Amino acid sequence: MTPVIALVGRPNVGKSTLFNQMTRSRDALVADFPGLTRDRKYGEGNYEGQRFIVIDTGGLTGDEQGLDLEMARQSMQAVEEADIVLFLVDGRAGLTAGDELIADHMRRSGKQAHLVVNKTDGQDPDIAAADFYSLGFESTFLIAASHNRGIRSMLEILLPSEEEREDQDRADRYPGIRIGVVGRPNVGKSTLVNRMLGEDRVVVFDMPGTTRDSVYVPYERQGNQYTLIDTAGVRRRKNVSEVVEKFSIIKTLQAIEDAHVVILVIDAREGLVDQDLHLIGFVLDAGRSLVIAVNKWDGMDPEDRARVKEQVKRRLDFLDYADKHYISALHGSGVGVMYESVEACYDSAMAKWPTNRLTAILQDAIAQHQPPMVQGRRIKLRYAHQGGSNPPVIVVHGNQVDSLPGSYKRYLENTFRKVLKVTGSPIRFEFRAGENPFATKVDRLTPRQKVKKDNDQKQGPSPKKKRQKSLKR
Predict the structure, then answer these.
(1) Which residues, including other chains, have CB under 8 Å from residue 468's CB and lie 6 or more apart?
(2) Any idea which of 125-129, 201-205, 270-274 has the lowest mean pLDDT?
(3) Which residue has the higher pLDDT, 347 or 233?
(4) What is the annotated role of this protein in its UniProt record (predicted)?
(5) pTM to 2 decimals?
(6) pLDDT on residue 171
(7) Tell me, which fold does domain 4-159 have in CATH?
(8) What is the pLDDT averaged over residues 313-329?
(9) Burial tier of 464 (Cβ tally within 10 Å: 0-12, 13-18, 19+)
(10) What is the pLDDT of residue 200?
């Protein structure tokens, strides 16, 4: 579906300029006086392959009469049509009573509205936006539409990525939370699927390799939609000989990509083996939430149970954020409790956090433990925003981020995980450095500077520089 973005705000805040930048056109008239735009104007934009429609509207004041009232109706009609509303304000003029009236109407409309502070060029963007934070919008973007600054990063956040669009296509085919059940052959995956469904939906037999293809089963439980994915067992590569089994493994890896939450089934009687760790690696590389199910727990001696728990705790220490359940798929003990973990994982993986909250967490983390210095300069991390879901992606902007050590990145991950209460899902960080505006600038000398440079090269260093050089030696 093509997103529709409406631009609203007071007169002369830069809506038409932003419209032209987003559509890469000059369709909207732009002049330095208010009230030029009166009717709704539609345009089409494209960002990273994602098409979208932009609606330019006339300015709102909050107490319209006559012609202004008709313009206001046009603007409100655009708000009703839009999927995303961008409320533009003037960073130079500051917060006005009209802005407060429009913000109040945006809240009552129930639309997904974002605050856009325009005209931040030539001043500190944070200072320009300070007054507008009192309006209470969850997300705020700082741009300079006339110079095309900040618009790409805004669209990156507002528009779904290619991965999110693919995920939406899968959601249309398989509704609800998609739960992938993976593990080695004969650990009880199909038995667990049947137990969770409450019926014998897939074939169960005491022989490895019974399941050959991934089976998608949509169902409903307590009013919630789910899709269970039963997969073929994955053995070590050296033990895979049949062509059919090789295709089954590919299908299993695809099922992991399709899932929101993956349940890894481990055989308690065989313990945690290297192949289980390889499967965990596949799940984490795909960025999927993870729940550990230690199956065949029934009938084990207390000593064996204690040994398995100790082994799981020791070897899966790096997965302290993932829930671990000790179950019996055959008898159903402990299976129902896993739904709580699955739903918590799904909520964490699909969570949306406003930019101001992520930036506040980043600043608190920096205040508690500053980034290290590189070549005498402190690494600076300026702000953070969300770049995707399933898994959550947090984009941090700063300078010298390529020199940020892994230990500090892990510190940030643990801090964000703790504050945001992310359960079961990995968090991915992307660190981006701002472009140097002088990187491509050519240093041009005036004729007088060229003459001085030539003379200096002919005469050599001055007596003062010679003395300084000898003292250093």
Answers:
(1) none
(2) 201-205
(3) 347
(4) GTPase that plays an essential role in the late steps of ribosome biogenesis.
(5) 0.62
(6) 56
(7) Rossmann fold (3.40.50)
(8) 90
(9) exposed
(10) 53
Residue 439 in this model has a pLDDT that exceeds 70: no
202 has pLDDT over 50: no
Binding-site residues for GTP? 9-16, 56-60, 118-121, 183-190, 230-234, 295-298
How much is the pLDDT for 389? 85
What's the CATH class of domain 355-433? alpha beta
Instruction: Give how far Cα 160 sits from Cα of 3, 83, 251, 421, 464, Å.
Output: 9, 12, 26, 24, 62
**Structure token pair of residue 176:** 């609800």
CATH superfamily of 170-349: P-loop containing nucleotide triphosphate hydrolases (3.40.50.300)
Cα–Cα distance for residue pair 178/230, rounded to 1 Å = 11
The C-alpha atoms of residue 383 and residue 373 are separated, in whole angstroms, by 18
- Mark 178-206 as b/e (b = at least 16 C-beta within 10 Å): bbbbbbbbbbbbbbbbbbbbeeebbebee
**Amino acid letter for position 232:** A
CA angle 119, 121, 125 (to 5 degrees): 85
- The pLDDT value recorded for residue 425 is 92
How far is 85 from 78, CA to CA, in rounded Å? 9
Residues within the annotated binding site? 9-16, 56-60, 118-121, 183-190, 230-234, 295-298
Within the chain, all domains assigned CATH 3.30.300.20 are found at: 355-433
Distance (Å, whole) CA 145 – CA 14:
7
